[in-house]
Amino acid sequence: MRRFVIACAVTLTLAPSLSAHHSFAVFDMTQEKTLTGVVSKFEWTNPHTFIFVDVPNDKGVVESWAIEGMSPNYLGRRGWTKTSVKPGDKITVSVRPLKEGKPGGMFIRAQVGDKVLMPTGAPTDER
Amino acid sequence: MLVFARMRYAACVVSLAVAGFSAVAHAQKPAPKPPTEADWTAIAKLPDFTGVWELTFGAPAGRGGAPAGRGRAGGPPAGPQLTPAYAEKRRANLAKGAEDSQTANCLPPGMPGIMGQPYPMEFLLTPGLVTIVVEAYSQVRHIYTDGRPLPDDPDPKFFGTSIGRWENGTLVAETAGFSPQTEIDRGTPHGDTMKIVERFRLADPDTMTIETTITDPDALTAPYTTTRMLRRHRTWTLAEYICEENNRNFVDQNGKAGINIKKD
Hints:
The complex is a heterodimer of chains A (127) and B (264).
Chain A: H1 2-19, E1 33-43, E2 49-56, E3 62-69, H2 72-76, E4 90-97, E5 104-112, E6 115-117
Parallel strand pairs in A: 3-5
Antiparallel strand pairs in A: 1-2, 1-4, 2-3, 4-5, 5-6
Chain B: H1 2-27, H2 37-44, E1 51-55, H3 84-95, E2 121-126, E3 129-134, E4 139-144, E5 161-167, E6 170-176, E7 195-204, E8 207-215, E9 224-232, E10 249-251, E11 257-259
Parallel strand pairs in B: 4-5
Antiparallel strand pairs in B: 1-2, 1-9, 2-3, 3-4, 5-6, 6-7, 7-8, 8-9, 10-11
């Protein structure tokens, strides 16, 4: 139950957070896709972070996915650092995929080893 | 050589003329008096606004509409009450179906949107001035509390021109003169005489409320008031936010939103 409440709180606070810089127009907000692959690059930059993940597609061909997250300013106050994700990390990440079917999406959550990464949450000084 | 000499002469004439003009222009405005020790001491007696604050989302709604566009049960409908002409302008703007605003291209939002960002703001109090450093888009607002009036005909600006006064521990800021590129809310333009009054006060030592009232005889049939709540984060410092650092999002001239997913 506690986990459910946290998940709801996260969902409710996500909308104003990401919509500050741009709309959700390019993402299919009705879909959730889970990818497993290897991180090739982590862009810890404004206005958004991007995790690039090499993911084998249905035909076994490796595609590079670009996964957009909140800014380092926002995430840095919620426990993330520039090394939260590193090239070579094996990652399982859930995204709202791009509407046009290209390999990209909006970050929902990820697991790297035993570390769970969330897109938002209470500031670390209030936990 | 003669040509150069003539050019230099012309440059001197222009410089002198500019200097003379400036002197005249300055003579019309009394120079602000330098702050005294008493002015700095007076700041210590004001409510402690200094430091870094961040909005708490899901904060209480205000009269005439909530920040997130949700009305309160039994209260008036959400959002600004528009005149027929501006309701039509809003309808036309939304009918264009733009998928995003220019913020996707890193243009900062103006007032009042800049005060609703999911990033902290730092308040600085100096004699005659409250400065708000806004982390989002690395922007800054100045609220002059030295007794000057609002200009009669301010130039249109994203954040307008602001003056303020202290009333029993509340900073009351009045702002006028807004760029036509700013909106009351999404798709809702403002008129030339829009005015925004903000009341900043401490609800408890680390909680600030900002009650924002917009009046606009062209666009609104009633004042539009919203209230936001901020928490002070004493251990935080502001970070830079250079939107153009790595902006992969965009909206094109037809209002179509896009994203660049190419790994550099």
